[in-house]
Amino acid sequence: MRFVCILFAVLFLVRPALAACRLNAVFPYSMEHRKIEQVQGLGTVPLYLDLVCTDDPEEQTAALSVTVPEGFELLPKEGWRIAPDRRRGRCIWHMAAGYGRAFDLLYVRALEGTAAGNKEIQVHLSLTGTGPAGTSRTVPFRYLPDGGKEESGETSAAGGASSLAERRTAAPGTGTRKGDRFHWYIQSVTLPVDNQGNRDDRSPEGVLYVRDTLWENFRNRMTGERNNGYGVIFSHPAAYFLLDMRNPQQDVRLLRVRARLFDKDGRPVPGLVTAGRSDHESGEGWAGETGTGEGTAALISLDGRKMQAFILPLYVDPLQALEGEYRLRLTVEGNGQQKGMEIPVILDKEHSLGLLSVGVSFACLLLAILYLRDMMDCIRTIGARGAITAALFAAVSFGGVTVPATLLGDVVHALLGPFSTFFTGLLSGVMQYLLLLALLMLYRKPGVTALLFLLKFFLNGIFFGRFTPLGILSTAVYIAVLETVLRCSGFYRTERMDRGHMLAVVILLGMGDALIGFINLEQMMFFYRLYYADWYIILYMLVNGVLYSSIGGWLGYRTGEKLQQIAGE
Amino acid sequence: MSVRQLWEGTDAKPWIRNLNGRTKLVFLFLYAVLMITIDNPRTLYILFLFTLLLHGLAGTSLSKWRVLILLILLGLWGSMLSQALFFARTPRTPLLVLIAPGTPFLGTLTGGLSVYREGILYGAVQGLRTVSMLSLGMLVCWTSDPRQLLNGLLAWHLSPQIAFMLVTAIRFLPVLASETEEILIALRLRDQKAKGPFTGIRHLPYVAKPLLARCLRRSQTLALSVVSRGSFSEKAARRRQQWDGRERWLCLLFLLATLAVVFSKISFLLSEQGLYAGPLRGFYDFSSLYL
Description:
The complex is a heterodimer of chains A (569) and B (291). Helix content of chain A is 40%, strand content 27%. Chain A has 569 residues and is α+β, with helices and mostly antiparallel strands. A six-stranded mixed β-sheet of chain A has the order 2-10-9-4-7-6, with no helix packed on it. The longest helix of chain B is centred in the middle third of the chain and has 31 residues. In chain B, 71% of the residues lie in helices and 4% in strands. In chain B, strands 2-3 form a two-stranded antiparallel ribbon. The chains are: A alpha+beta (569), B mainly alpha (291). Strand 19 of chain A pairs parallel with strand 1 of chain B.
C-alpha cells in the first residue's frame, strides 16, 4: 500500500515533466494529402498547423507566430493578427488540460516578382503552463514563379461574377501585389446531373422535382416535427448540380458553397436545406441543426488545378418548397472573396399520388366491370320486386343527396369554400350510406351496391348531363371499393349479422369511403389542376369518410332492420 | 320558376331539342375530355364562351339564363375561394392571414392558412373547366327529355332491366318528392313546438324511415303488376331512335378532333420529358400555343 502511494506521489510530481506538445506544420498543404514539394506562381496555398498537447494537468495558452519569407504574404484570417507587412501572423490557442488539440489553415501567397528558389516558413510556439515553454519549426519549400502567369487574361474574363476581391495597393517587399485579381471563379453551373456528374439530355434543364410527401407531412405535423424524415431527404437529394470552377492562380484552399432560392422579385424563399451534424442516437443519421438554415451549404476544396468540377447535392425540404419558378443563387466564398452566379430553376412537385390515384381509378374501373356481371346476376336473383326497390332507393338517393348537393352545394361552396364539403357531407356521407345499408339489409347480395351507384350515376347523367370521364371513374371507385369491402368483411357470407359484426362492417365501410374520398379528391386535383392542402385532404377523409359514413351506415343498419319487418308483413 | 320547370326541356329551339340523345352524350363526354386536357387559359375561356353561345343558339329562356349565371358565378367563386386558400405555387402574396403558422395546434397542423392573391386568379382560370361542364350539362338537361337520353343509352346496349329501373326511378321522382312533403307536413303537425321557418330542417332526419317504408310497399305492388305484364324480362322490346347520318359524322369529326388534341398534349408532355420526335414538331407548337 505504501508502495502504491509513493508511486502515485511520484507520478503526480513528474506529471508536468511528462507533459508534451507536438506542433505539426505542413506547407504547401494538400487537401487530398498529396505530397507537394513546391509552390508555383501567385496561387494561394494553405499552411497547415496542428498542435496537440498531452498530459498537462492545467489548461495552457499557446501563442503561435508564423513568419513567411520575403516575397510572400499571409492572407487575413479570423482569429489571426497579421502584421502590416503581412509577413508575420500571430494567434492564441487555448489548449485543454489533459489533452488538447487545435489546428488551422493559414493561407500564404507569393507576390509578383518573387524570385525562384528554396524558401522557409518559420513557426514559433510559446506555451504558458507547467509543460514545455515552447518550440520552433522551420518549414522548407521550393518556389517557382512560372505557374499562373499565362492565366492573367483568363482571370479577367470572369465577368458577371460578383467579386469582393482584395483591393490593396502595393506594399513593402521584394514583389508587388496585383489588386482586383480573381483567384478563382465559377465558370458554369449545370443542373441537374446525376451523382457522377453526367447530364441526362432527357431530363429538362433547370428543373428540380420535389417528392410527394402528403402522408409524411401529416404524420410529422401531428407529432410536432418540423419536417420529413431527414434520413430520406439526405439520402435522396432532389438533384445534383455540377459546379465548374476555374482556378487560374492554382490556389489550394477550402471554399464554402451556398445555394439559395430567390423568387422573381429577388426575395429569398425557403425550400433548400443543409445537412447538419449526424449522430447515432437519432438513428436516421441526421439531427441537430439540420434544416434550420435557408439554403444548401457545402464545403469544396480547390486542389491547385486550373480547372476543377464539383458534383454537389441539392436537398429540398418537401414541406417548405412550393412549386414555381425561381432563381437559384450560388455563392462561393472564402477568405474575403465571394463569387456568385444565378441560374433559373423550376421547382416541380411530383404528383405521384395524383397519378397513382388515376391508376387506381382505372384499376377500379376494371374491377367494377367485373362486379357488374355479378350485378346482372343479382338483378335476376332479387327479381322484379328487388329491382324496383333498388330503383326507388336510387331515386331517393338522387333526390335526397345529389339534387340538394348540386343546387345548395354551390351556394354553400361559395360561402364556406372548401369547407362546404363537411356540410354537404352530411348528405353524401350520412344519407348516402343510410340508404345503402338499408337496401343491403333488405337484399344482402353481391351486386346490390353496384346497382345502386350505377343507377345514381345514370340519373345524374340524365338530369345534370354529367356523363364525364371523371364521373365514370368516380362511380367505378365507389363500386369497386365498397363491393370489395363488403365481400372481404364477410357481410354477404354470414347468415345472421350480430351487432358487433355489423359495427365492424360499418367502420370498414367508413374507412373504405375515406379511401374513396382520397382517390376522388386526388384525381380531381390531377385532372382539374387544383390545389388542396394535405391536412385538408386528411380532414376530409376523417370527417366525410370515416365519421359521416360510419354514422350513416349504422343508421342504415337500424333502418334496414325496421324495413325487414315491413317487408315481412 | 319552380324546380320542376327548371328541369324541363320544352322551351328550347327545335334544332337542339331534336338532336339524338347519343349525339348529345357524345358531345358532352368529348367536351369533358377537352376540358381536362387543355391548360391554356385563353382556350379554356373560349371553350367556356362556346357553351354560352350554344345556350344562346338553343334559345335558353331568360329565367334559365338567370339560374345559369347564378350557378356559374357561384361555381367560379367557390373555385376561387378554395384555390385562394390552398394555392401552393410561387409567387404568392398573402392578402389575409386566417391562421398564422405560429398559432398553437391549428398553426402547427395546417402550417398556416392565408388567402393568396395569385390563388384567386388561378382558381378563376381552373374554375372555367367545371363551369364549362356545368353550362354544357345544363344545356343538355334543358334541351332534352330524359327519355331521349335513355333511348340513347338503350341504343348503346344498356341492359333492358337497368333501363326499366331507370325509367321507374325517373317516373317516381315527383311522387317521392310529394311524399316527402306529406311526411314533413305530418311531422310538423305532430310537433307541438313547431314554430319558425326552419322547423322543417329539424324534421329531416325523421323523413328517411317512413319514406323508405313507403318505397318498399310500393315496390311490392309494382312488382306484381310488372311481372304479370311480363315487362321485366330479357326480351323486352328495345325502341331505337334512328341516329341521323349528319349527326353521326359530326360526332366522328369531334371525336377525331378531340383525339388529336389529346395526342398533341400527351406528345408535348412526353417531349418535355425527353421523348422528342422531330416530325411531331407541329403538334408541339400547337400544344405550346393553344393547349
